[in-house]
Amino acid sequence: MRENLTLKLLQKNITAYDSTLRDGAQAQGVSFTVEDKLKIVERLDALGIGYIEAGNPGSNPKDLVFFERVRALKLKHAKIIAFGATRKPNISAAADNNLQSLLLAKTEAVAIFGKSWDYQVIEILRTTLDENLAMIGDSIAFLKSNGKEVVFDAEHFFDGYKANAEYALKSLQAAADAGADVLCLCDTNGGSFPDEVFAITQRVALRFKVQVGIHCHNDCEMAVANSVAAIKAGAVQVQGTINGIGERCGNANLCSIIPNVQLKLGLSCIPQENMADLASAARFVSEVANMAFNDKAAYVGHDAFAHKGGMHIDAVAKNPISYEHINPALVGNSRHILVSEVAGRTALLAKINAVDASLTKDSLETKRILAHLKLLENDGYQFESAESSFDLLIHKLLGRFEPFFVLNDYKVSVQEYAENRSNNAVAHVNITVNNQFEAVTAEGDGPVNALDKAIRKALERFYPQIAEVKLVDYKVRVLDSDQATAAKVRVLIESADQNRTWTTIGVSTDIIDASWRALSDAIEYKLLTDVQIAENKAAA
Fold first, then answer.
1. Where are the alpha helices (DSSP H) in 126-251?
2. Residue at which a domain ends, from 288, 321, 350
């Protein structure tokens, strides 16, 4: 009977509930401005997220400003959620400032958290078990009387259930009796295992007629597994954050949960046509949060469908399912064949065929490119981390590249001041574009920054789209440290525009020269791909 009931629950749609702007904002190093929050709301709404928990209006004035401004957005999918706590002990709900702030937010839906673990009630809230139940019931009844849809977050529910199941269930009953629309079970300490989460969630889902949600933290690195287990057990709302950001070890990662639910369990979570936007949405939120993107992330990471070993590459070329659990395009990602000295001609062929489909593994051009690759890697290049530079190299070696600009010369000077000052470097760049000469000077905070500004300034008159490009990451590695100051350095530069990211490389005994090579590759790759995209659109 239990299996039949659970199967019945699984027929329902799963609501994606995003807490990036509230729970995710509690991550170390994350601080969203009001503008940041508005941008993320629009992107999550476009993705098809059902609920966006956007802040606690009772905690700071900035969130009140946000809730006022977000009302002007014309959202298509998402409901905005204001978040807060149950009333304080021994006062009325109407007299509680936090609950009044939830009303001031003027959102259609609200979420409030309350204690479901007897230990937390007695030792942290310092009140009685009965008063805590009254706090839950009074708060929800007050919000419902004001016309709100209410999600009750049962804080520490799994720890509470394991310590005192009777009381944990009473906390849910108090919320349900008061009219809560969703009972969300929280693994607040992130210490539960999937089998525990499944068994407990199933009992709750079978006991209550109210919809059940799940909210997991990642302290045992099981937040996604626990969330999926809860859904299998009957939860129909899943809470999490984009890229799993959050306090301590983070929250359940919606970028993994959504495709797991939709592509693996066959349930509906976001509109199917929006799934292909998942990878770019993940990178967008990472950029707005000013956090390094995790290239190893499941589904959406750059390396999620990357293949380096020769046997793997050969198998994927024959049939991708040999080493890929889904088609990467389903989540907006793509396959990456990593080019290195261990990959062989099969790895090269996919790259080469993208430029010239007529070439084979045994073509002279393929052998020549492989030989050139091995020479460059022996010289310190590492193209598996800089595929964009390798794509450019193939175009050049096959004679399929028309330079967008020609460097005549550049000069960089640095002046040190007695006091710390920005813009201590000056770069002068001379280029030619279509027989037109351009010479510019730019100041920067360090020689590479100055050089980057100068080349952009020189080219923007000819190629306005250069203004879209941002330098996302800059890495330097010394390759042969035994050579001391004469050592070669490898520079990797990650760049991004509104639609994609790419990485380029430069190697030299001079760090400025290595940086220039990577910078110029980044710009050439941007311009080349823009031309290719335009040609593909015209052909279609």
1. 129-145, 157-163, 165-177, 194-207, 223-233
2. 288
